[in-house]
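PROTEIN–LIGAND DATA SHEET

This sheet pairs a single protein chain with one bound small molecule, glutathione, given as SMILES. Inputs appear in the order they were entered. The predicted three-dimensional arrangement of chain and ligand is reported afterwards as a token string under its own label.
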Amino acid sequence: MAGAITFYTNPMSRGQIARWALEESGAAYDEVILDYASTMKGAEYLAVNPMGKVPAIVHQGHVVTECAAICAYLAEAFPAAGLAPTAEERADYYRWLFFAAGPVEQAVTNKSMNFAPTDQQQRMAGYGNYDLAVDVLEKAVTAHPFIAGSRFTMADVYVGSQVLWGVQFGSLPKREGFVAYAERLEAREAYKRAKTRDNALIAEMQPAS
Ligand SMILES: N[C@@H](CCC(=O)N[C@@H](CS)C(=O)NCC(=O)O)C(=O)O
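PREDICTION REPORTED AS:
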């Protein structure tokens, strides 16, 4: 079935977050696999995302980039999935979605690039310092079973991806709270479907031995 959404990705990228969100949303989508060195920087794709980065989705003529925005957009555009926040969940949903996309992302990236802000620079850096951002993230993911309360919402796709990725690749410490949250998320059928598809694509890309 032709998808309502065109999904631009590479399986070895943050596109895995967007695929999980797409699977959770129940939306039909067509995938376009881009190569880092060629098609991702070609004129055709730059017309979609001038950043030349993945993922991106196009839905009804509208482009959405930025994984966190893709998650929030899909939750609203496909309400039947029930993953947008209720009024009670809204504050935590947006607070932690933006916290993960801003401070956490910056803290983890800077650490992996061996950059640590000085005490003075920490006042300007939105995340303060790595340990502070990690401690606050841990409190957030252990306050309730899911980031916005007792049930899974689309914010868990984004916050959870940061945690799953961080724990797997060592950019976040393997604290009990992170590991338990990650395990709850890995049990999602949509997560498993998305992983299976990306892993199959990755396997296809490996040169035959
Ligand atoms: N802030 C963006 C980051 C996107 C991003 O950096 N994607 C990487 C892959 S994980 C990329 O496309 N890199 C290719 C390049 O910059 O040439 C998001 O959250 O979607």
